[in-house]
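in:
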């Protein structure tokens, strides 16, 4: 006791007297830093997305690719694009390649991820590092090596060679994504399934795969996007049929045309819709997991 005031009361008195001053000083010190961070973030986002906004705006420019600011906004370039058979043939080719590459990558990537997570075998550490090799190698090396392989086998270059090339190069994406999902998987559900009489195959399809739905969908979307955008591997393995990136690249060699801006805008909108769909699936899945955990907590005898 000091001056008739107990210790805890003195502490509360000191806090009430000096805490507002300390908070004001801290906020005044952090204000310039926050402004610089906000300015830095705005600069980064402008650097990333301002060119996309300009591209979209010029896809409606009546004067083509020249002139600033854009004038006489029109949809004529989109009408020309929809009547351009070469572009749409390239789009269909790219869709076929992306779907085929996605199928191959998932078909080999999911078992590889399961082997890394569940199995013990000689050379597992080396295999884990080799899985990441296609992500590290430049696309030129991958494309050239596959070209030499197909030439050695006497395989004629066409869309099939591109599908095999993309699928081979992107197996590592499926493996890493699914492996990350397996690391977060609750093994107790699989053990409960086995204890209730299900065999390993039934447990895999009814317990493991549903719990890996988000990683598998995420890997599929990422593989699809990377395949649609791939140009280095495709350049070495292409036959007579162009994919969309190669078609755009070939036209850009003759100069930028408004149709390129229009098709790029459509690709951007498609990518944005894909992101929205993925986000909604993820939110819905996380909500169902939280609901299941809450239901389990309510039914737990120890919780009552």
């Amino acid at each position: 006791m000091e001056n008739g005031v107990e210790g805890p009361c003195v502490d509360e008195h000191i806090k009430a007297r000096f805490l507002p001053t300390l908070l004001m000083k801290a906020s005044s010190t952090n204000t310039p830093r926050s402004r610089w961070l906000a300015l830095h973030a705005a600069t980064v986002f402008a650097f990333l997305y301002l060119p996309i906004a300009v591209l979209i705006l010029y896809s409606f420019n009546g004067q083509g690719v020249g002139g600033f600011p854009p004038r006489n906004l029109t949809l004529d370039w989109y009408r020309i694009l929809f009547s351009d058979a070469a572009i749409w043939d390239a789009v269909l080719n790219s869709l076929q390649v992306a779907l085929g590459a996605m199928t191959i990558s998932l078909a080999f990537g999911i078992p590889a991820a399961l082997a890394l997570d569940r199995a013990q075998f000689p050379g597992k550490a080396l295999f884990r590092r080799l899985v990441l090799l296609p992500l590290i190698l430049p696309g030129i090396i991958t494309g050239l090596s596959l070209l030499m392989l197909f030439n050695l086998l006497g395989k004629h270059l066409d869309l099939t060679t591109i599908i095999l090339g993309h699928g081979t190069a992107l197996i590592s994406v499926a493996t890493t994504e699914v492996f990350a999902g397996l690391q977060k998987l609750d093994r107790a559900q699989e053990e409960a399934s086995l204890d209730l009489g299900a065999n390993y195959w039934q447990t895999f399809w009814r317990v493991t795969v549903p719990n890996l739905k988000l990683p598998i969908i995420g890997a599929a979307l990422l593989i699809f996007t990377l395949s649609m955008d791939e140009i280095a591997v495709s350049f070495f393995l292409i036959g007579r049929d162009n994919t969309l990136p190669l078609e755009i690249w070939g036209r850009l060699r003759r100069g930028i045309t408004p149709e390129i801006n229009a098709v790029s805008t459509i690709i951007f909108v498609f990518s944005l819709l894909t992101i929205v769909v993925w986000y909604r699936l993820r939110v819905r899945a996380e909500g169902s997991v939280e609901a299941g955990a809450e239901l389990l907590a309510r039914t737990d005898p120890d919780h009552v």
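note: The first helix runs from residue 7 to 58.
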